[in-house]
Amino acid sequence: MNYSTIKKTAVAASLVAALGFAETAQAQTPTVFGGRSQYRTWSIGVQGGITTPNTILGGSNAFGQKVGYFQNKVGEYYGLTIRKQFSHLFGLELEGNRGRIKTYNHDLAQNGGIENSLLAKSAETSVNWAGSLNGVFQLGTIDFMRRENAVNFYAKVGLGVMAHNPVQFANNDFTGTEVFNNEGKWGDEVFGDREAVGDRDNRLTGYVPVGVGVKFKLSEVVALNLGYTMNFTDDNLLYGPARQDAKGKFANLYGGLEFTLGSRDKESLTFTNPVATLYDELKDPSLRNEVEALKQRVSTLEGTVDQLSKDSDGDGVSDKFDKCPGTPAGTVVDGSGCPIKFPEQQQLTETGSGYFAPIQFEFDSSVLKTESYATLDKLAKDLRDSNGTVALDGYASAEGTEAYNMNLSKDRANAVKQYLVNAGVSASSISATGYGEANPIASNDTEEGRVQNRRVEIKR
After folding, report:
1. Which of 53, 115, 255, 392 is the most core-located residue (most Cβ within 10 A)?
2. Whole-structure pTM over 0.70, yes or no?
């Protein structure tokens, strides 16, 4: 092989090696459930088919004088494969083949200045052996929801070396005078000098196989393999000396059988679909029992949470922690669920006047809470019956600016007033005033204190 062949061979080898390493490294962190050890990963195959001197990509070959005159002829091609599957997506395959490639031309093709320059109409290249290392990429599946697929599509690319000997004939039916046959003389490419010859029977050429195919699973061991491969060489003597200095190429169409090695108790990784495996495992009885047990635990926890959050008197403290159960609706309580005593309450109690608990509000809100309705309804009835008056003093906690909190306290006082008016109390008997952050009844340094300061006090 010349320097160009060696260089391209090295580049292709690096590409295949890099792809193989990346997929192998990925497979070392198993992407299939249970790891590769639970699958069969080795297989061997036998295949046979035909060759043509052109590919589906088109273009001319070296032997043809013109593209339009070049003729495809069919030759036989057969071989063996050994493959290791590293994951459900990638495997490495060692492939060996032998066979013949045939071609001819309607017009006579001159033979590059060979001594006693004769004219050739046909050429037959014997591929005595060809070996390549291929990366095989599985592209798609059918029967997606089954643990094992019935059909797999794949693509492959690799790097190989072949030993071949082209023979050119004067007739277009591969008979007649042998225009060119360098068997036993390969090793020197200066064909015009018949004294400078080598002693090899075959010419060694590097090539890159690129192909696609499909596999049909026939049983747990056997699969039918159909494929098409284009083989690109760095050799302009694939069909012998020719008028055109073009790199030789050929294609082979093949069919064969692939046999998976190993115990039949294990599945073939080639036909395994991890997504379908996951779907199948979700239906496993032991896993479903475990899921049901988890559901029971969640249900028990939910029941416990419901018990812990139960608040029979609606004072905001759960029954489990309420030290003063049965608190009247609207009563302001502390963290233990007991009523908070305000100075005004003590004074009013001493004078015998009625007392109404302050109306509490959420943070930055002047919307009445539903638990305040009972207190306000009682106040409205008292005012209607006695035709009395009431003063509503609105307050806010210390978050925000003083001006904002002043407006917020006014809105809170007016919200209580509007409720009383809607309940039939004369608006003239109600005064509503906002005092902002003034007169806190608890510390604004804690959330518990700030909650108490967000209020409207009722004064009769």
Report:
1. 53
2. no
